[in-house]
């Protein structure tokens, strides 16, 4: 018997179709409903826990339905105001032009709170500070003319001053400053009442959102009268220097004497789903108290020329409060993708819960042979003992 080529082709086509059918196959899970109270309770508790986790922790606590942008773009402008009585040779009153360094209104600034003044320095020859090392001599040859004194105040002239602790004579601004500790008597007391105005603009480019720390409503009159206070005026951008120091946990008196560094932290935590919820939070922390050598000081000079062309200067070693204004924070906004991902992961956990309950069910069934006494399996047929376990489950757990 021979097959015709047509019949052969038809058979081949039918075989091919059978092979392709698996692509369109869909297997369902067979469900078993049980009235076991313990198991049911366990499953409900598990479901409730997952729901609680999803709603309470993921969505309410961690805002899992939002995306976060923590690259904050920020600009800070500062302005210090206040005048103080001082007792210096040049002036008896200091304004911000005199005591703020640098005076560009930047986010790092120093406000002078104490000073040591060395008056009437002129360029000339004089003796060097004997406490400076590598500058002792016993004869002129040991002082190389033209050589600078390391960490000193001038250039060696080539003369050894035997009358002055055997130090090399220098050319520089003379007389040199006498090293001493800062004196509490020269503290600029009024500095405690100086005010610092901080203007901060921020932007979160991912959400194209901008904000500022200066309240917009009644701006002018508000700024004239307000002073930052954590409870009364938490959004006033004007700060009293004394408050900044005390909020950092130190006394103004102690800090004004030798100076110090304080970080003014502006934290933005913006929930862009709530329109008004993007306000700064200020905190103050002292940054220089890790070592014994606390304090902050630097030197500057003011120069004078008289009608005869004689030049002199006043040198100041100043102690001050160094402020660094640091801005950080993040913004959040609803987004469908994290929402779906979080819900999906909670659903996966729930599936794990039903898997666990399946295992428990099987375990109970195996242990107690009589199904009727504790569980009733509703299936097409009533089954007893081991037969109660449906084929699907048996395969699932390879019993
Ligand atoms: C600071 O200002 C208050 C109130 O204006 C004043 O009573 C106090 O004496 C001032 N403090 C100093 C150190 O000037």
From TrEMBL:
<comment type="similarity">
    <text>Belongs to the P2X receptor family.</text>
</comment>
<keyword id="KW-0813">Transport</keyword>
<comment type="function">
    <text>Receptor for ATP that acts as a ligand-gated ion channel.</text>
</comment>
<keyword id="KW-1133">Transmembrane helix</keyword>
<dbReference type="InterPro" id="IPR001429">
    <property type="entry name" value="P2X_purnocptor"/>
</dbReference>
<keyword id="KW-1071">Ligand-gated ion channel</keyword>
<protein>
    <recommendedName>
        <fullName>P2X purinoceptor</fullName>
    </recommendedName>
</protein>
<feature type="transmembrane region" description="Helical">
    <location>
        <begin position="336"/>
        <end position="363"/>
    </location>
</feature>
<feature type="transmembrane region" description="Helical">
    <location>
        <begin position="41"/>
        <end position="60"/>
    </location>
</feature>
<keyword id="KW-0406">Ion transport</keyword>
<keyword id="KW-0472">Membrane</keyword>
<dbReference type="Pfam" id="PF00864">
    <property type="entry name" value="P2X_receptor"/>
</dbReference>
<dbReference type="InterPro" id="IPR027309">
    <property type="entry name" value="P2X_extracellular_dom_sf"/>
</dbReference>
<keyword id="KW-0675">Receptor</keyword>
<keyword id="KW-0812">Transmembrane</keyword>
<dbReference type="InterPro" id="IPR059116">
    <property type="entry name" value="P2X_receptor"/>
</dbReference>
<keyword id="KW-0407">Ion channel</keyword>
<feature type="transmembrane region" description="Helical">
    <location>
        <begin position="312"/>
        <end position="330"/>
    </location>
</feature>
């Amino acid at each position: 018997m021979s097959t015709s080529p047509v019949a052969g082709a038809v058979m081949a086509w039918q075989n091919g179709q059978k092979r392709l059918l698996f692509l369109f196959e869909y297997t369902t899970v067979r469900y078993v409903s049980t009235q076991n109270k313990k198991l049911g309770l366990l499953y409900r508790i598990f479901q409730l826990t997952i729901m609680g986790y999803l709603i309470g922790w993921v969505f309410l606590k961690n805002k899992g339905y939002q995306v976060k942008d923590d690259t904050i773009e920020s600009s800070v402008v500062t302005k210090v105001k206040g005048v103080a009585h001082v007792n210096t040779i040049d002036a008896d009153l200091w304004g911000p032009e005199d005591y703020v360094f640098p005076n560009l209104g930047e986010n790092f600034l120093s406000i002078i709170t104490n000073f040591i003044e060395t008056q009437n320095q002129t360029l000339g020859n004089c003796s060097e500070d004997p406490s400076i090392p590598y500058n002792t001599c016993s004869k002129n040859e040991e002082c190389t003319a033209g050589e600078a004194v390391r960490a000193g105040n001038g250039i060696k002239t080539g003369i050894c001053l035997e009358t002055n602790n055997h130090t090399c004579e220098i050319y520089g601004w003379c007389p040199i400053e006498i090293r001493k500790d800062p004196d509490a008597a020269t503290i600029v007391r009024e500095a405690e009442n100086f005010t610092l105005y901080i203007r901060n603009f921020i932007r979160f480019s991912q959400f194209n959102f901008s904000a500022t720390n200066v309240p917009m409503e009644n701006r002018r009159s508000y700024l004239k009268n307000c002073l930052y206070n954590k409870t009364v005026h938490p959004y006033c951008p004007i700060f009293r220097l004394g408050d900044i120091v005390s909020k950092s946990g130190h006394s103004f008196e102690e800090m004004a004497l030798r100076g110090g560094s304080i970080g003014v932290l502006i934290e933005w935590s913006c929930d862009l789903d709530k329109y008004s919820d993007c306000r700064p939070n200020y905190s103050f922390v002292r940054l220089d108290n890790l070592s014994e050598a606390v304090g902050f000081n630097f030197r500057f000079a003011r120069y004078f020329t008289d009608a005869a062309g004689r030049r002199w200067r006043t040198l100041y070693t100043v102690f001050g409060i160094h402020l660094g204004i640091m801005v950080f924070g993040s913004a959040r906004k609803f987004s469908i993708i994290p929402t779906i991902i979080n819900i999906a992961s909670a659903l996966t956990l729930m599936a794990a819960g039903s898997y666990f309950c399946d295992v428990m069910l099987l375990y109970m069934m195996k242990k107690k042979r009589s199904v009727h006494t504790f569980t009733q399996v509703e299936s097409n047929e009533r089954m007893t003992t081991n037969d109660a376990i449906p084929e699907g489950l048996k395969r699932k757990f390879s019993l």
